[in-house]
Every structure is written in structure tokens, then in C-alpha cells.
What we know:
By secondary structure, this protein is of the alpha+beta class. It has four domains: about 100 residues, no CATH class; about 90 residues, Beta-Lactamase; about 70 residues, Orthogonal Bundle (Helix Hairpins); about 150 residues, Histidine kinase-like ATPase, C-terminal domain (Heat Shock Protein 90, 2-Layer Sandwich), CATH 3.30.565. Helix content is about 55%, strand content about 15%. The strands form three sheets. The chain has a five-stranded antiparallel β-sheet with strand order 2-1-5-4-3, with helices on both faces. Strands 7-9-10-12-11 form a five-stranded mixed β-sheet, covered by helices on one side. A two-stranded antiparallel ribbon has the order 6-8. Helix 7 packs antiparallel against helix 8. The longest helix has about 35 residues. Bound molecules: adenosine-5'-diphosphate (ADP). Adenosine-5'-diphosphate binds next to helix 10 and helix 12.
Amino acid sequence: MQNFWIRVSMPVLYGALLALLLSVMFSVTLALIFMLLVLLVVMGYRARQLYKLGEWLSDARLETIPEGGGIWDDVFSRLYKMVKRHKETRQKLAMELLNIEQATAALPEGVVSLNEVNRIEWCNPLAQFHFGLNANRDIMQDITYLVRQPEFIDYMQAGNFDEPLVMKAARHEDMVLSIKLILYGVNKRLLISRDITQLERIETMRRDFVANVSHELRTPLTVVNGFVENLQDMHDLSHDKIQRALHLMAEQTSRMDHLVSDLLTLSRLENDQSPMRTETVDMQTLLDDVYRDGQMLSSDRHQHSLEMTGPARLSGNRNELRSAFSNLVSNAVRYTPEGGAIKLRWAVRAGQAVFSVEDSGIGIEAEHIPRLTERFYRVDRSRSRETGGTGLGLAIVKHIAMRHQARLEVLSEKGCGSTFSLVFPEKRIAA
Ligand code: ADP
């Protein structure tokens, strides 16, 4: 401070000393005129520096900082340091902001920052996609004006944000979102959105599956239960009646047995923890077995044939392949009226190995074909049941095909028979 005053008053002091000298050597008037001139020069110089400072402050950039002499050097150098520090802090903050923006953009969830009256302050790209927002156009818009679903507006207004809201995305068909509002800071709000379409689908499948299994098991169980109750109530039971009841009960228990065994097969195939054991499968013996199974199942009601021009060996799992092939043959037998023909073929088509089962049976309408491999999907429920079907056969075939990187092809026309083919990739053909 003291130093400052000394430096500020130095030019005036020097001037005053010189004026004193002039008054002694010449006259007081000359000294006063000289002093006045000194003061005018000092004021002019300071006014100029002040002007330069004012000009610079209107666009304060490091490169254009003015140069000064004396006390102004000090002022400008301090200003220079201050602006430099400020610039560095700004750069650091900008970097941090960019980092935060990049991190939130990479989040697997949509994030919208809202103010206390639900106006959008900022949102990441995923939130823009979920809600159909535009980060430039919709900033400071009320989100309830942009997302108009009543359940969303109710959620935002209810004020109870403990549980997330599950709703369909208005802009995307079939997309299900889980939305949660989080309060933070002073009246600040974060809206988090998550795409749970896949989870919902799995949950629906699980529910349908449990309902289907329960339904499938209930029918035979009710029948068996009915017979047991009847047997308990009847006192004059003849041997024939007992035999008939036991026969019908055995039919139903065998149905349950098939169902449970197919369910276990499916669950084993779906379980990623049980990888497929691959071996070199001799196709001649495998196909002979499958062919014989088909003949036995058909009990001379159909004409069977086997044509084998395909590779002698395939790399895969024998038990799984046998199960898939037998399922296709069993379907052909069950859905082909007596007298029909069932042709098994093992051939090469465009370098790929193809197993196909062609029947002259009832055929399938085109609309059903894409859904045949769904669990429990049947075109004709009662026909499937009457012939001992579980509704899981083609689901099992599809899984086995997937485990062998093969695909299932279905060609069918109602009333004109069907051809089910399993097409194996070239790399599965063993040398
Ligand atoms: P299911 O035990 O009912 O036969 P699948 O999964 O094996 O179950 O087959 C699903 C449905 O596909 C069957 O219910 C049947 O309607 C139809 N289907 C399968 N194979 C044939 C076929 N060869 N001819 C006609 N329909 C078939």
C-alpha cells in the first residue's frame, strides 16, 4: 500500500522538486506554469491508460492486454494473471462438463434433468430417443406437454416416486419403458428412463409358460382323479370295469409323463450351462434307427421310404439329432391319415446337408407356419392331444437345430402335405 502511494505520487513529486528549483533559479510564475504542465501530462497519461484499460475490458483477451509503464505495469500484470487463471479455470470446467456429458451420453439409461416445475434443463441422447425429445428445441419446455400419456402425467403430479412407472413409449411401437423420478439438490429432479421391452417379453413368456404347463397337466390329472374317485365309490366293481379304468388312467399318466419328459428336454437344451457334446455321427445308423422308429409308430398305416445321398458323417450330438429327426417323423405319422406316404431324405443341397421329412398329410395353413416352433402352439389342439402330442416337439427341434447352427424349413399347404427340413451348414459335414 505504502509502496503504491510512493509510486503513484513519484512523477508529481519529481515535478514539484523541479518547480521548486525553477522558482529559486528564475521565478515563481515559471515554476507554477511548469508544475501545471507536469500535472497535465500526468493526468493525460493516466487518462490514456484508463481509456486503454476500459477498451480492453470490453473484450478481455490475454493476447490483447495493453502495455503500461510505472504503476500501470503492475495493474496490467495483475490483470493478466487474473485473466489467465480465469481462462484456465474455465477450460477445466468445460473439460469436466464435457466429461460428464460424455459419461451420461454413454449411460444405458435415458436421463432428463428437470427444474422444480418440470421444465427440461438438459437430456442425454437415450432420453431423447425414449421420449422423442429434441435437445435443442425442447430445452425449458414442460416435459408433461411433450410426453402426453395420462399415466405419465399422473405419475409426475402424484409426488410419490418410490416405485418406477412402467409404460409404453408413445413414439416407438412395442417399446416398454420403466421410468423413475429422483429428487436431488434444491428442488432439482432427474428423470431416468430404461428400456425394459426385453425383460417384459421374458416375463410374459414365463407367465404364459407356467399357465400353459399348469393347463396341460390339469386335464390328465382331472381325468385320473375322476377315475380314482369313481373307483372308491363303486362297490360292485367288475374285473372289466377295473381294467377299463386302469387303461384310461395309464393313458393319462403316460401323457403327463411325455409332457414332463419334453419339458425336461427343453429345459436342458435351453440351459446355456450344458454345452453340447460334439461327436462324429454315423448318419446311416442314425437314419436307420429313426426310420425304424417311424415305422413302429405308424404300425403299418403309412408307406415309409428312406433316401440317402447325403454325407456319411455329421459333426454333432447323436442323441439330440435323433430326438430332432424322430420328432419330425413322429409328427409326419401323427398328422398323416392312414394310407399316406412318409419320405425321409438325407441329401446335399448347395453344399449344405439336409434332412427332410415329407408327408402326404393334412398340411398346415400358411398363417400358422411362423408360429409352429412356439412352445404349446398347435394348429388343432384336440388332434394333437388325441395323437399324444405335447405341443413341445417343434420347440425342441428348433433348439436342437440352433445348437447345431442349422435351420428348420417348413413347406406346407393345407390338405396337400408338408415337408419339414433341417439344413446343416457345410462346416458340420465331417470328413
Ligand atoms: P404337437 O405335440 O402338438 O405335435 P409340435 O410342436 O410337434 O407339437 O407341433 C406343433 C403343431 O404343428 C402341431 O400341433 C401341428 O398342428 C403342427 N404340425 C407339426 N407337424 C406337422 C405335420 N407334419 N403336418 C401337419 N401339421 C403339423
